[in-house]
Amino acid sequence: MNAGSLFGRQSASLLGLDVSPSSVKLVELSQDRAGNLVLERCGIEPFEAGWISDGNIEKFDEVVEATRRLVSRSGTKTKQVAMALPASVVITKKIILPGGLSERELEVQVETEANQYIPFSLDEVALDFCVVGPSPTSAGDVEVVIAASRKEKVEDRQGLAEACGLTPVVMDVENYASRLAANRIIARLPGGGADAVIALIEIGAMSSNMQVLRNDELLYERDQVFGGAQLTQMLARQYGFTQEEAETKKRSGELPEDYAQTVLEPFVESLSQEIERALKFFFTSTPHNKVDYILLAGGTAGLSGLTEVVTQHTNFPCQVVNPFDGMEIGKGVREKKMLREAPSYLTACGLAMRRFAR
Fold this sequence. Notes:
This is Pilus assembly protein PilM. This protein is an alpha/beta fold.
C-alpha cells in the first residue's frame, strides 16, 4: 500500500498519527484474543501557532522534531503509520458504476469519472477509490467513493513521517477517520444508535466541523470558523498575556481566580451559540428538524459546563466523546491523563482503527 492511497487497510501494527494545526496526536491499538480493542499507547505533543496553516506544514523542521519527541516518549516500536489529510484539501465524490467489474476495469472507470470532478490534471493528483457496496438506487450497480488530493499535499505528510523514521502506509481523510472512531461510540448508545440522527461536532483550534450522521450515512457537513484558539485570545486580552503564555496557562490550568466567570463562561456561551447556529443551517438545508444526540470532540470539548449550555441552547442531549470508551487500557497508558485528553484523540483513534477495518 503506498502513501497515495486514501482508503488503505492494514493488519500489521499501525500507529494513528493525527497532525492538526495545534498538535500531533498518536494512538496505537491492538486486539485481545476475544477481538476486543486495547489501547496500548496515546500521546499529544503541542505545536506553536503557525507551524501548520490551512493544512500545510509551514515549519517542517519544528513539526518533525515535535513528532519525533511524541513517538519517542510513547515508547512504541511500531514504524508503520496511518495519517490523514484535512477534508478541505481532498475532493470526494460518490459515483455509481456497473457491478462485476475487475479491479483494473474499476480503475479505468474511476479515472474517467474523476476527470469530470477534479479541476486539475490527473498527473498532479493522488487518486483512490473505495467500493462502498450495492447501489441503493440502481440494481446490479455498485456505489463507489472517489477521493483525490494534489500530490504535494500527500507528499508533505509522507515526508513528515519519513523524516521521523516512520513508514506511511495509509493516507486517509480526517473526517472519514473521525467517523470510523465515532461509529464505535454511536453503537454504544441506546438501541445501538439505530436510526438516530447524530450531530458529531469536532472543535478544533481554528475551526469546528459538524457531521450529521444516521446509520453510517453522512446527511450533512459544515465547517465554522470558531475554535479553541479564540479562548486563548480571550485569555491574552483579559490578562495581558502573550499568546504563548495564554496557551501554556490554558493547557496547564494555572489560571487567575476569576477566569471561570470572566473568560470561560462567555466563551462557552459563544461556542454554544455557534453550535446552535450550525444546527439551524442543517435544519434549513434538509428535511430534518431535530437531532437525537450531539457528540462533542476535540480538545475544547471537555470545557466545564459546555455540554449543559449546549443542551440549554439546542434542547438536544449533548455529551463529550471518549473514543476509547469500552476499550481495555494497556499498561503503557496513564489513564487519568488519557481521560482528560480523550476527546482530542477521535481522529487519531480512527486512523489507528484502520488496522482492523475491513
